[in-house]
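Q: what sequence does this backbone want?
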């Protein structure tokens, strides 16, 4: 072997050793790189949420750029597994998404915007069926500038206000809620029931609905409470369809807040399940100090007693629609009921029960459930009207004299007999001398 050949072989071996050494150094980094395995988007009225699904924790940095408006997200030691959506969105804030490799082992994601936003980002650890997630919220710049809705107290029908009913469809967006044997998602069913209830309240003179969630997006439990507080709602109704480990569990339940403990082991189980929704929905932190103060005010102001009476009325009407899990109002520490005002939570059925899941999928059954909730709510406020509302000043009172008939009274006030029966919760045309009837102003 010649000297030149020996030198060439020596150089080759050195270069090979260098390549192998670099590969050994780089390989663990490639293997340990976090993978972005999916991207989901949840548009809401005042924000858009993007959720990046990851197979491992990731460090990131987010910043904004102008002209044009865009958000840049740099992920360290990360790569995309497959492809992410990059086409234009039919969405008021986002034009599209671009991404590319950044440096040796980084990833840069660019969100092209239609308008300036206030971004917020945080990471979530695995919980339940969810793995590691990077959450990016794009908030409208104008958010928080709207003046709160103020109530006024009036004594005349001309200026009296509507009764405000907050309707809270549980879960949404990132959090599907409970899932039935056929794949029915709680978040979808309860939103449909909430919309049916909204329609009924809109039709009722003197009542006004406030939808806490209007679409498929998630609101934190504290945000739901805050929304009702800002609007100064007179009642907060939270609608759910939970699951239980036993698929035979069935029936409808109505809950109010408990300041001490749950009224049953099932009530405790359901409260724990609903209270963990923020972990699924993507809320970075929770502070209950404000809510605990609100709870103290509720107890002091006897709001729990009002809640119990409303819940009893609703439960009585739901009995005609579905089997009751328990024929009395239950109590548990549901965080979403800490709204500082009368509040009830309706578990419409167990979505984990095959028969009840089938019912919940039915539009007819959804309407029936909404109708029962509406009737119970209306019945309570007709007998306990809130001062300053139309329901408090709009009804006339008529004391029944001997010889009077319901048809005669209806003709005198130019309303139908059905209207009087409905307003007074009576089933027949029989009336009692000396009794007092409410005569609605139509």
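A:
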């Amino acid at each position: 072997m010649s000297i030149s050949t020996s030198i060439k072989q020596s150089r080759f071996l050195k270069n090979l050793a260098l390549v192998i050494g670099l590969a050994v150094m780089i390989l663990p980094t490639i293997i340990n790189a976090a993978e972005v395995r999916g991207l989901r988007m949840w548009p809401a009225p005042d924000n858009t949420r993007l959720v990046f699904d990851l197979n491992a924790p990731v460090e990131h940095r987010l910043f904004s750029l102008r002209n044009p408006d865009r958000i840049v997200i740099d992920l360290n030691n990360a790569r995309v597994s497959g492809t992410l959506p990059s086409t234009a969105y039919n969405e008021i804030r986002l034009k599209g998404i671009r991404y590319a490799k950044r440096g040796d082992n980084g990833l840069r994601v660019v969100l092209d915007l239609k308008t300036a936003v206030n971004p917020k980002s945080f990471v979530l650890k695995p919980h339940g069926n969810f793995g590691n997630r990077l959450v990016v919220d794009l908030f409208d710049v104008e958010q928080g500038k709207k003046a709160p809705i103020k109530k006024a107290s009036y004594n005349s029908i001309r200026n009296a206000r509507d009764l405000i009913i907050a309707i809270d469809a549980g879960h949404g967006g990132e959090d599907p809620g409970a899932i039935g044997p056929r794949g029915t998602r709680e978040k979808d069913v309860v939103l449909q029931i909430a919309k049916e209830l909204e329609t009924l309240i809109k039709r009722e003179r003197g009542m006004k609905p406030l939808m806490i969630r209007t679409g498929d997006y998630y609101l934190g439990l504290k945000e739901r409470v805050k929304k009702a507080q800002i609007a100064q709602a007179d009642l907060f109704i939270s609608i759910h369809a939970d699951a239980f480990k036993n698929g035979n569990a069935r029936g409808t339940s109505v809950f109010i807040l408990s300041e001490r403990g749950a009224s049953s082991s099932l009530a405790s189980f359901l409260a724990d399940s609903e209270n963990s929704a923020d972990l699924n929905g993507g809320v970075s932190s929770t502070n209950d100090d404000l809510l605990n103060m609100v709870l103290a005010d509720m107890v002091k102001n006897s709001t729990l007693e009002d809640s119990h009476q409303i819940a009893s009325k609703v439960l009585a009407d739901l009995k005609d629609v579905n089997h009751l899990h328990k024929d009395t109002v239950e109590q548990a520490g549901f965080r979403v009921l800490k709204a500082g005002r009368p509040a009830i939570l309706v578990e419409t059925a167990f979505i984990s029960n095959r028969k009840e899941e089938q019912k919940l999928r039915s539009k007819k059954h959804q309407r029936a459930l909404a109708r029962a909730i509406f009737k119970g709510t209306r019945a309570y406020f007709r007998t306990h009207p809130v001062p300053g509302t139309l329901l408090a000043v709009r009804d006339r009172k008529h004391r029944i004299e001997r010889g009077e008939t319901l048809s005669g009274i209806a003709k005198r006030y130019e309303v139908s007999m059905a209207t009087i029966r409905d307003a007074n919760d009576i089933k027949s045309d029989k009336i009692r001398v000396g009794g007092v009837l409410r005569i609605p102003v139509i």
